[in-house]
Amino acid sequence: xxxFLTILLAAASLSxxxxxxxxxxxxxxxxxxxxxxxxxxxxxGPMTLLYPQWIPGDHSPDGxxxxxxxxxxxxxGKTVPWKRDDVNMFAFHIDVPAGTSSLDVSFDFLSPPxxxxxxxxxxxxxxxxxxxxxxxxxxPQGADADRFQYQANLKVPDGWKFxxxxxxxxxxGNEIEFQPASLTTMVDSPVSAGKHYRTIDLGTDxxxxxxxxxxxxxxxxxxxxxxxxxxxxxxxxxTGALFGSRHYRDYHFLLTLSDHVAxxxxxxxxxxxxxxxxxxxVDSALRNHEAALLTHEFTxxxxxxxxxxxxxxxxxxxxxYDVPMKGDLLWVYxxxxxxxxxxxxxRSGLWTKEQYMDSLAQTAAAMDxxxxxxxxxxxxTAVAAQLLYFAPEDYANYRRSVDYxxxxxxxxxxxxxxxxxxxxxxxxxxxxxxxxxxxxxxxxALKTYTFDDVVAGLNAVQPYDWAAFFRDRxxxxxxxxxxxxxxxxxxxxVYDSKRSEGWKDYEExxxxxxxxxxxxxxxxxxxxxxxxxxxxxxxxxxxxxPSVKVIAVNGRQYTGTVLREAVEATASGKxxxxxxxxxxxxxxxxxxxxxxxxxxxxxxxxxxxxxxSQIASPMVRH
Length: 622
Ligand SMILES: [Zn+2]
Fold this sequence. Notes:
Blueprint: H1 4-15, E1 20-25, E2 33-41, E3 45-50, E4 68-75, E5 78-79, E6 82-84, E7 91-96, E8 102-110, E9 128-131, E10 139-140, E11 149-155, E12 161-164, E13 168-172, E14 175-178, E15 181-182, H2 183-187, E16 191-194, E17 196-205, E18 208-216, H3 226-243, E19 251-257, E20 264-267, E21 271-276, H4 284-289, H5 291-299, E22 307-309, H6 330-333, H7 335-348, H8 353-368, H9 378-383, H10 385-388, H11 396-399, H12 406-422, H13 429-437, E23 447-449, H14 451-461, H15 466-475, H16 484-488, E24 491-496, H17 501-510, E25 512-515, E26 521-524, E27 530-533, H18 538-541, E28 549-553, E29 556-557, H19 560-569, E30 577-582, E31 585-590, E32 599-604, H20 611-615
Parallel strand pairs: 1-11, 18-19, 19-21, 22-23
Antiparallel strand pairs: 1-2, 2-8, 3-7, 3-10, 4-5, 4-8, 6-7, 9-16, 11-14, 11-15, 12-16, 13-14, 17-18, 20-21, 24-32, 25-26, 26-27, 28-29, 28-30, 30-31
């Protein structure tokens, strides 16, 4: 623990510093090695250098520390020993020798080969790399992240192009010299670079230019269809109408297309690090499945970066990246972003209205059939985010996952529908976004909020007992999901034997056969591995656990189609028997089920006005 006074004094002594020269040599990126050098101001005596641990947006202490190797500290040309703290693994203690005013610190960062995890996962291939500065930085304990500055130089492999929101001073050949920037801005401003690279100008809106930088494992990966680029431009216009102002100087989508990097999106004030499969832009199923990724990460520039729960700040004056975050309001930070990201997809033309409805049906069914909601309140999935991000899919239906994303979509839809109904269509959640996330705009800023601020913001738009509304949905357990937004919005969740187009895109992209709502089983299409079961569902009752392999279906070798057709045949009274391999043993299980195939979809409830379609309609004429 550090006292507030200590932080103030330490920050004062370090704030007048000239920018730390930081050199990152990424020419070995194809071998996943990044060479780092920095000259750290120092004064004789004890000093502690920290490696960023709590990475903004990851909501977890997942700074990729095991990937740091070859750490050498020198002062006055001589090696200075370092000693890792035996409790805080991210802290390195140094006794700075007399007469030393700066330390030469060097290490290598190894990008891991595996594609799991977030920004700590794989971020380099032979063709491209995504560079997150938190991986290449050490900072002195007590530094004020908003004021402590670095002046970065980056060398990329010959012939590679790059994109970033970090302001550039000059470029020459394959070397980029950046303008000095604070630790906060560095961690917030990744760079993407690659051999196959394309920058698309999305135009200027409210004074801010917008760009998409595509880095792919092939030239083919960069072939974004014209209608997709047009929809991205619509997205810029729609966010302008929704939020009214922008809290960035310019905005850069760093969209990486590779099957060999970790797949996720990570938000920043002025950019987003968006990573998807290589063929996402040229394969319609993949494109539809990922359509709400850019909309989600872009929304975070307002909801997550500019407006942030007080417990999710890091760096800056409130503490360094070694201060644990508190995730209890992630159902606002991520939940509202998930809702707005999905709503912006049909508003921008990235989805049709039907695709939005298919996505909503999928979310509603998943949350409504989550067994773990009987024991775990939604808020606990947020508080325990740092555990759940890294939990296996095995028994996730019982454990619950990071449900504040999908269930957030349902809750905020309910809020939007309620405001529209209570105000007879005069107000909507759009008005809340304009007031809560808008403001003056300009350069990145941080304005924190509490639960009470969210409640007050909603009350200013439409008076209601919002505190009780949220406590009921967020802090208590309920076996059923909050479907009030869908139902009051003029739609009903039903299950039938026909897969919607959105459901097909999902199964194809995720490479699964998802029979969760019939026999309570989801399998990996290619090899029959059971990804998860519905706890309390027919497969569970028949004694089938997750992570086993389906070997045969009614005596015939497993394929996804054989299994799906056998489930379909149960509707005409045919039995369903699975041979599974559990560890080294084989067992046969008769599943007591006769309902045929069942997949979720939304159907219109003609007794009520169609509010959901109004919500999905553009705010701007495109
Ligand atoms: Zn997010």
